[in-house]
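Practice problem: predict the structure.
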Amino acid sequence: MVQQFQMREAAREFVDEYADYDEEFDFHQTLVADETFGTLAHCRKELDTQLTFADGLSTLVEGHVRGGRDELETAMDERVAEVRAEVED
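Answer:
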């Protein structure tokens, strides 16, 4: 099971893709603390690691891993939109 600190660490790594820290501090902090975003970010980080270091992956497996990573990116985009809407309310 993923630990809270792992989720937040992964979220911090990806949050800069979605928020300008200087201009959107509250949104940035909320996104880092969001458990759903953190879980998605952790999974994406794990898949990125697999793709980086697993030279022995077959083409079929690599395609599935890349597809999974793309789906995670889409889910992260959707969660960012949800969190942004919550923060702006």
